[in-house]
Amino acid sequence: MRRVAEVRALLADAALRLLGDAARLEAELLLAHALGRPRAWLYAHAGDAVDAAQQAAFAALLARRAAGEPVAYLVGTRGFWSLELEVTPATLIPRPETELLVELALARLPADAETRVADLGTGSGAVALAIARERPRARVLATDASAEALAVARRNAQRLGIANVAFAQGDWCAALGDARDLDLIVANPPYIAAGDPHLDEGDLRFEPATALASGADGLDAIRIIVRDARAHLCPGGWLLFEHGFDQGAAVRALLAAHGYREVFTARDLEGRERVSGGSL
């Protein structure tokens, strides 16, 4: 029979079983989820007993995490920008470096004007919803080729009460239909080279492959977006997209070759080239 254990003892044991610098944080997130409590509750109730059923649920989560499943999928949520988003194995897990894409988008969208924005390959809706929350006068279209991902994004919009977002299914710019007056197109497309060994490591093993890899050099999706976005932007409109840390020079060349102006690349907090873009 499983003995009753205290919160602090369960966390200490779990942190030893999990690998990596984030072991303690992951243990806290998983235990909070198993208990149906916010993470902050654990600190105020470190001496509380956890019953056998809750211990069993926590142990099952720990076993799955030890086998490699991402914490975000195990608990079903991930924070991004100021939002707590539902995520599932049908969506990419939002990452902190993608917040740079939101920052650069907001810098090009005046808060006091009506604007039209599209987010290509929206996944959980992270970028589209962050922009829509910060720019309530913007009309944001979130697109994805995956019906399952769009369902997650719609649920996030509804739960968060963000009403200035619409959704469309389709592959990249094909989902934009006959729209020709967008002020901004953003995208976090797949940009890892097919066959890259990192795809078989860590959380990437469990995320949707179509949201990660794109051709022999990782640039197939970006080539399509750069080529097609021009037809949907208004004069002075911007295209911004995330890419790999070693792809800056290649994507700047693509943008220049397709006639974009003001071509630039911005670096993330770790100093890596992360987001590029250009205007019409």
**Proportion of residues in extended strands:** 15-25%
H/E series, N to C? Answer: EHHHEHHEEHEHEHEEHEHEE
CATH fold descriptor of the largest domain: Rossmann fold
Kindly report how far apart the N and C termini lie.
68 Å
Rg over CA atoms, rounded to whole Å, is 21 Å
Number of helices: 10
- The CATH class of the largest domain, by name, is Alpha Beta
- What is the second-level CATH architecture of the largest domain? 3-Layer(aba) Sandwich
Low-confidence stretches: none
Shape: elongated
> Structural class, from secondary structure content?
alpha/beta
- CATH homologous superfamily of the largest domain - what is it? Vaccinia Virus protein VP39
Major sheet attributes: 7 strands, mixed
Question: Helix proportion of residues, in percent?
Answer: 25-40%
**Order of strands across the main sheet:** 7-6-5-8-9-11-10
Q: What's the number of extended β-strand segments?
A: 11
Mean pLDDT: 94
Number of domains: 2
